[in-house]
Amino acid sequence: MPRKIRPKTISKSFRIDEAASEALEKEATTLNVSTNTLVNQILKQFADFDRFARRMNTVKISGSVFRSLLEHIEPDNVIDVAKAAGSSIPQAFAVSKSGKVGVDTLLDYVRSSALYAHLFEFSETDDGQKRLFTLVHDFGLNWSIFLVHYVTAMFHHVGVSPKVEMSDRSVTFTL
Fold first, then answer.
1. How far, in Å, CA of 144 to CA of 157, rounded?
2. Is residue 143 part of a domain?
3. Are residues 170 and 119 in the same domain?
4. What residues make up the domain containing 90?
5. pLDDT surpasses 70 at 1
6. What is the mean pLDDT of the chain?
7. What is the pLDDT of residue 124?
8. Of 84, 78, 69, 82, which Cα lies nearest the Cα of 149?
9. H helices of the chain, where?
10. Average pLDDT score over residue span 37-61
11. Residue 62 and residue 132 in contact, taking contact as beta carbons nearer than 8 Å
12. 148 and 159 in contact (C-beta within 8 Å)?
């Protein structure tokens, strides 16, 4: 089994607010990780996602509020919003982060959305001929409908029409 290559690390020294330091140490203890690991995770989230998401005016709300909002929207409206958003937001994120839009940069956006925005769980397989990725969530049928049309619109911009399978808790795309 190949060994996982660790990213190169560097030493840095920062002065931080005492209350922030205490909160970090408390949270690290709760999570059973070192304070260094927690700080690195927070900085990585900022570097990989938050600084770009902020440019798109991303907001954070609780999962229960999000689920409730989705339950009260008509599916046709969900589709309209998904198509419009999927035609612009992922591309803007990809360009901001990597300077280009392509299948790989758009998939990076989807992975980052799973990891840092907690919108779904992401899994992927690539057999060399086709790529398959699944988004699993707990937000109901309207969120699946949204994801189908959002991701389809996103890939349409790079000339890819994914095959889609959907349930009320997951969506699978084949490229």
1. 20
2. yes
3. yes
4. 62-174
5. no
6. 90
7. 94
8. 82
9. 18-31, 35-45, 51-53, 63-71, 75-86, 89-98, 103-117, 141-156
10. 83
11. no
12. no
